[in-house]
Amino acid sequence: MAAETKQFLRVENLSQSFSGLKAVTNFSMQMEEGELVGLIGPNGAGKTTIFNLLSGIYTPTAGTIIFRGEKLNGLPTYKVAQRGLARTFQNIRLFADLSVADNVKIAYHQHVTHTALSSMLRLPGHYKNEKIMRDKALELLKVFQLEDKAAEQAKNLPYGQQRRLEIARAMATEPKLLLLDEPAAGMNPQETRELMELIRWLRETYALTILLIEHDMSLVMGVCERVYVLEYGMLLTVGTPDEVRSDQRVIDAYLGEEAQ
Amino acid sequence: MSAEFILQQLLNGVSLGSIYALIALGYTMVYGIIQLINFAHGDVMMVGAYTGWYCTTVLHMSFLPAMLVAMLACSVLGVVIERVAYKPLRKSTRLAALITAIGMSFFLEYGMMFLVSPQTRTFPPVFPQTIYHIGPLTVKYGDIVIITVTVCLMTLLTVVVKYTRIGKAMRAVSFDKEAAALMGINVNNVISATFAIGSALAAAAGVLIGVYYNTVQPLMGIMPGLKAFVAAVLGGIGIIPGAMLGGLALGLTEVFVSAIGFSTWRDAGAFLILIIVLIVKPTGLLGQNTREKV
Amino acid sequence: MRWEKNLILLAAAGVFFVLTSILAGRGLISRFVLLTMTQVCIYIILALGLNLITGFTGQLSIGHAGFMSIGAYGAGFIMKTFDVQAGPTLIFFIPFALIFGVLVAAAFGVLLGLPTLRLRGDYLAIATIGFGEIVRIVLLNTKALGGASGMPLKQFVGWGAAYWLMLLSVVLIYNFVNSSHGRACIAIRENEIAAETMGINTTKYKVMAFAIGAGLAGLAGGIYANHMYMIQPSTFNFLKSFEILVMVVLGGLGSITGCILGAIVMTVMNNALGIFPEIRMIIVSVLLVTMMIFRPNGLMGTTELRLPFRRGPFGTKGDMTNGG
Fold first, then answer.
1. pTM of the entire structure?
2. How buried is residue B61: exposed, middle or buried, by Cβ count under 10 Å (0-12/13-18/19+)?
3. Is A230 within the bounds of a domain?
């Protein structure tokens, strides 16, 4: 029992259907603290749905999500985020018209302690918290090499930097578990290599646990310790990158996709 | 409350509800196709009422030709409004489109006021003032006309939407605009046709309201317009049978609220229904739930 | 630097007030112009509140006149109930009446905000229209508050109080918007799902925006009630809500200076064309439609007019070096 409550993330028999259409069926997974795990599968296999379930955007039709001993399913999205679970989006969802710095500051908002009233009256609490927030944001932007873009509108950043900003923003929530939805999508090989370095570095520095969805196999095989393979919303197999790579079922699943 | 009384109010409610339903159809069709609440719709109805008034009073036409002229005039007006004000905004935010629609509504109201003065005009008695007594019920000739016209127009609309080319194209566009365009449907024409049909129905309703209340004035479109919108939402916006159902339900509610002695609260009732429906089942009585894609 | 800048602004505001008071005292500013200036202040407060709800938080509301009427009748009710007469007690009763109006309006803001939060975009707009109409009809039917003939009141709030309360509102809203809490509201406008995923309680901030916006409308209503001698339900109709929306939209959704400009331009135009109501409304509606087609974000967009300080007093953009 004690060992179970210590488990970092435990997903059991998760299912989700949209008006009869089954997007995810009986999906189970476990993660230990500090792991870097990949989630792969052909298009439409239900990977992003699993992210939406984990981050509380969807409420699962069945199954449970236990994160650090606490049940997550049923909690509103913002509470899931406050429990230490952050994510990025496949189709970038930045606050497009706001500055790069504001994007990061907004994500830090859940940690501020001053009230709206103290901001309206400009009491000391406001200045103190705003300063902490500014420093934290600046620090993160440095890490992500975006500090010279701080005043720029997010929508004006080049694509690769927008992806980096999404990760920076997720990091500002100070997460325990980071979910990355296709972080390398649209990046060139050089950018992807840099991203791999960044992901490794983040994990070391912030003692993060990371789950990522990725189509770029070089990235998945390069950084992940374990890989879950999905097909038709069901778990096909799980194993180390080498095991998964040589699994005939996985090859078939991907070949099937390419043959279409 | 006696059975006769209830039956009588039922008849009055159906009569009023038919008019709401006719206006609601225009709201629902436009919303179904371009997801816009066409706020100016109630005012198109007002223009229809004025056209009918002009035809009967100045040109001395009889009821049916006057109504047809009003329908024709308003279908042109509807298409012009769409082309001038709404089409340039098709790609902008819903907020911008909604504000434009409200602007258009005020333009019609006060433009009309400028043209014909704010004075209330009396609609001439176009029907014989015959009153029939069917059992305990008092049935006015006007009630029969209103219900008959509504039933005919709704049947016609249903046939058009179900069986004609343009009707099928309308359903295709409301389902998926891009796919319909790829299939070779001229989306702009379909949208124009929708506005034309919706506005013609509103014009018919306008003439009927003019006859029903005996008066026309430039701001007469606001309240029936808002209520018809409530009717459309109540039935499930975008759904044609929903608009008919919602219109009837609203007409009946209003008549009964007045009948039990709360006539000054009548309008509040309609809006209360609206807020309750929006909160409890925003998709309306006949609507289905959809969710935003993440 | 911050204090220097604020002191200069405060001094400028004071000089303007003294100047207008002297000119009005000598009869160089006519009563009509002074009335227009007071109305400008009332409308600026209204536009600020609606801008917070619609421009900054992105929740379309077309029932703002409803909140205004609640504030007006709330304040009027206090003045009537205690039969307040001119004299030293005004020092106590005027703030009491105004604050009462603000609180009642804010409470209704929460009441409306909470259940309608699940509604998006145009549905919310319609619900707020419904709310505004219901308030009007309820007032119309409430004999205790005067019913359709309205509530006669005395003029206890003049240009000075309206002016300083307007400035106070501007400062409060400016401070709110340029803070972490304000950014949480803006995040909802920008991308609600992303905001929620970043740990922002979107419900809380939508309700907060509604409460503050409605409270300001209540304040404007209270000033109106104590300035215009008479309040009637028909004053606070759909058209009034629409006019406030036009001010915000014309000036720029999400711009404080923009909506102040919008309120000034619209109020002056309204009063100048007061004898030609049809022409006024035709101009307003054509202006609005043209604006939406060619400049859908309003004159200012989300940007702010900057005074020639080295660090702009209205620096909403996240300049990292800005004191905020």
1. 0.90
2. middle
3. yes
